Here is the input.
Amino acid sequence: MSATGDAQLRATLIGSIAVLLWALLALLTSQTRGLPPFQLLAMAFGAAFASSLLWMLAQGLRSGDYSMLASWRLPPSRWALGVAGLFGYHFFYFVALGNAPVVEASLIAYLWPLLIVLFSALLPGERLRWFHLLGTLLGLAGAVLIVAGNQGFELRAEYLPGYAAAVVCALLWSSYSVANRRLGGVPTALVGGQCGVVALLALVAHLALEATTVPDGRQWLAALALGIGPFGLSFFCWDHGTKRGNLAVLGALSYAAPLLSTLLLVAVGLAEATATLALSCGLIVGGALLASLEMWRGRRP
Here is the structure.
């Protein structure tokens, strides 16, 4: 494998760490039950901002180099994409859940990995191969089985506003992930500052739309864990992966998040292992392997 191929593989693997961290969302969010969604978003992204700032300050104290903090001094246009992607996705996701059944809204919103694969073909030097598309469709089928389970799902006209919000949600995250490739020169450290802006926007939305709930100790710990992992480190990894990794493979791998999340719930006794789960596992793992076929062979599309 060439040096370029090695670098792309390494970046793709770093990006896939985000998928592993997103698998913790369901378990950690279950420990925050009772908190309004935008209040939780403000708490978690506030924790992500604080932890990233502390880490950069510690790095600066250790090395005497504070260039990472200086990376935040960028034009507003460089901040806009990340803030729109991070806040816009979560805002419209909550709107979708508030105006449509959870199963249908979640499935529509979770079209973003497939859209990443499709949109990535529009980038210079990239092209969509049959195994990228087929692998991602297999992953989507596995995700449908996990999210819908035995409930099934039905699209109904009265939930159209919720469905529309879920579509916007999927378009925002996929567009952000693909457009981020164009900002390869923007330091990943900027993500920490963007988390701070998202926390402020979430706080404004909370104060405008929700009644404040005083968190207990368990809820504070879960929100802190969300901020450090699924809402913190994951976005740093995703930023690096989308800028330098294989976008089609990252899109296919993203369907592992609901699978890993469900397996984790099974491990702690909050969900049941079923034949449907085993089938979903086969579809998602097989799809991810198929989509990454060319990368593992060491040939860049």
User: Anything to note?
Assistant: The CA atoms of residues 48 and 227 lie 4 Å apart. The chain has a mean pLDDT of 86. DSSP finds 15 helices and no strands in the chain.
